[in-house]
Records
---
Amino acid sequence: MHMTHTTQIKVDALTKAFTLHTQGGVRIPVLEAISFEVAAGECVVLDGPSGAGKSTLLRCLYANYLAASGSILVRDAATGAMRDIVRATPQQIIELRRTTISYVSQFLRVIPRVSSLDIVAEPLLALGEDRSVARDKAAALLAQLNLPERLWQLPPATFSGGEQQRINIARGFIAARPIMLLDEPTASLDAINRAVVIDLIRQRCAAGTAIVGIFHDAEVRDAVATRRLAIQPVTALAA
Amino acid sequence: MKPTNPLLQVRNLAKHYGRRIGCEQVSFDLYPGEVLCIAGESGSGKSTLLNTLAFQLRPDAGQVIYDLKDRGATDLATLSDAALRELWRTDWGFVRQNPRDGLRMRVSAGANIGERLMAVGSRHYGSIREVALDWLQRVEIDATRLDDAPTSFSGGMQQRLQIARNLVTHPRLVFMDEPTAGLDVSVQARFLDLLRGLAAELHIAVILVTHDLAVARLLAHRLIVMKDGRIVESGLTDQLLDDPQHPYTQLLVSSVLAA
């Protein structure tokens, strides 16, 4: 499982377009025949102008968006086999998200009444970890990310953008999964917390996690990238 | 991924009212512990489908196959009325939109819970009362309300009592028809969070009918969208809400403020 250079993600001829039926059926192509691989221990940073489809690509890798064609193979942590998430059943995708793929978006989707500590601990509980161990680990991560302890027992609905983002990051990092997808995880953080996140990413990478990320901030990009992947906007193919 | 058998298998199910379609060509599998939401607008056939799945309405065509505890996968059409009633009060649960349809309003909260327990063979008064008290607290109703009738409860408490009454027998499948439709938004959150926790903790499969896509987002692993009695799209909840493929699903998703 922890061999470096093992391919964890293999994307082949991935195409994604949105057909907007409420807008007269206009078809917007976003990704066209994208192919790449990511090995264990790599941090691949997606480069490209705004609107090039970087976030769309990450969402396809998480099966939050449905690819139009092509395949996305990920190495299933439970079996070691490659599995195509474009053709996986919902049950299989839920299982892959539990064991194999973690995704940190820019925004936290708040669950009413659930405390910050429990939101962070949840991915570990889903893997069968003991509640008190999971909570301790969640507390350690929140402390590392400088989230004031008085906030830990509160639901994050009323927190600032930066506080919510740190909860999101802690939730994404608490369970060691072999694949991590990071969509601007440092967008609303100050310099100190940006440095903490850079450290977390580098540690995961060194431990063999395959990471694909989007980072607006050049300092973060340079600090974590082991490789760059250019994503070009698809031009004028719509009809 | 896990080699489990489906709990419920639905094949080409149809229910008609005269020449009007209630639902038709409905097929899906439900696995143990899965929360499935059926979404659609009023008149889309989602409540008819729920009642037909539960065999409280007899289908005109198709099959509902349930993995019975003692017999394994069984076509519900082959069960006697008595066996169906037994299934309804023990291994299945029903949470209704109107608490009056799901509770006995004139008997105490404790008796509402105890009645289901007695259906699975509990006879000892003291232990029934103890279990009822425990469940009352699990659904966040004060223990002092055990002997009060649900008529004196708020709407939110009544819905939580329905949950306790149903889950006390540890059903493997619970059907819910718009359980939050009559509740204030602030009360909805408490109900949904409680339901989410209990379903996961007890590994209960849930089929929940709702017109509220935010409820589906919060609770459901999978989502089925219905229109005119048929399934127009189904899949992973967040994928279906964030990247809907069917014109009707796109319209539905784009018509709500935030889901």
Note: Chain B touches chain A through 24 residues (CB under 8 Å).
---
Amino acid sequence: MTPFEFCFITFAVSIIAGGFGSLLGLGGGLIVIPALTLFLHVNIRYAIGASIVSVIATSSGAASAYVRERMTNLRVAMVLEIATTLGALSGAYLAGRVGSRALEILFGIIMGYSALMMLRRRESRGSVGSAPWSDRLRLHGSYFDKALGREVAYRVRGIRIGLALMYVAGIMSGLLGIGSGALKVPAMDLVMRLPIKVSTATSNFMIGVTAAAGAGIYFVRGDIVPFIAAPVAVGVSAGALLGSRLMGQIRSERLRAAFVAILLLVSLQMLIKGLVK
Amino acid sequence: MTNEKSPAQAAGQRREERRVRDAEWVISTILRTGVLTSVAVIVFGAVVTLSRHPAFITSTKELHDLKSAPSAFPHSFGEIVRGVRLLHGQAFASLGLLLLILTPAARVGASILIFLAQHDRLYTLITSAVFTLLLLSFIAGRG
């Protein structure tokens, strides 16, 4: 394989990663890391460095569109970012002090459980009752759903449990260098009752900041190799810009089903990694 | 919730919505500019690299070294500036990646200014906390 071919394959895979990542509120690391390590035989260190770049590119590329289309709930994102960055700090502190095996198993169980919960619950939202914290923080919002052709208003609840879950997601990010979108989306969907499109768009918005918290260190350490990370950055950005155009048209149920499928896959992968290693 | 609102309440809500739209526009523009600029710089770096090393398109010899030579590329600010002056392709690629990494931090920083300008004390405080924690994580990771 020539260097040019290597870059081109990395670029092509990254377009797919950016497209799916932007639609599902993930960073694309789930696609980028295995593709680089398994098929292109890149050292895991540099694959993680490239994955962090992928998370930031997906987040910034897609969020620019989602925010403009008012799909992202900015206030929810900014409140929750306190918990994710605090978690990322704790994770950085814990790194090297706790076994990653136990964490992977725990992570796998949590994700599997939230996948099943998301599968079970249908769109029976009804009233969410009173939510004094969300009132005070002015978190309630609305967005225009193109697939339904109408404005959808929603109320936010469970901000305190949401904050706690985001703290956990932040710890995972700090420890593993990932965006943890797979934990953020279910937390917003199940606990805070945000519509799935708002959950994925808001997760997308937040993962950039979570990843940026770790990215500086990886960059200085030399883990972000331009030869590998540059085609990832360009491909993922292109994919995210394309994917974010599609989001409006897709029906919420399909998005939800796709997310649950991915969630189950990742949780299985984590469990196997944690148990077999 | 009742649907009837007093004129004062309705005006307040419109003002509130207007503030959110303004914030959304600024943030979205920052993110888009950050991504497009870094992609442009990276692509320029790739073109420079290919024009200097045409063998990268045809030869299979160099791939192994490129994938596993961590010290051969610039990854500190000084090295990047030096490389960019000498028109090194990899320095431009590194610069582009650095710009991409800084984009989310710039977005948080700008949010503080937006909320400050809108006299929104609560959210100025919230975004400042996020920015501080972000800075702390940069420092904590270094030690």
Note: The longest helix of chain A spans residues 196-221.
